[in-house]
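Treating backbone geometry as a discrete language has practical consequences that deserve illustration. The sequence in question and its structure tokens are set out directly beneath this paragraph.
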Amino acid sequence: VVQEREVALSILRLLEHEKVVVEGGGATGLAPILPGGQYHNQVQGKKVVVPLCGGNIDTTTLGRVMDRGLAADERLVRFVAEVSDRSGGIHDLTTVLKEAGASVKDVFHERAWLQSSVDRVQIKFIIETTGHNHTLEVKQ
């Protein structure tokens, strides 16, 4: 059984490395042999043929699949932080992200539903990183 996140990662890998657009059903055969897949170790060092078929994927769906692939690859990361609601609070946090080399893709801040001090704000970020190790560095 192949999970949707693995299929999304397969489509992303095909786009990035082979410049090929394949729909989900056509990329399913690749998913279990990618690193982290259930058959990856069994095919290491062997010649393997995976038929790729079907380009019937619209651009809106392709964009969503790419985002899911980036998330599965830990290159699209979401987190919540609480910072001062005073001038510079959000700036200080985005400076830390900038210095860590992360790119902010989306940000949302919320004041009304917090249970903390009234001078705090909750910030929800979606950031882009280069992968697992970079994500760990950013979180530090």
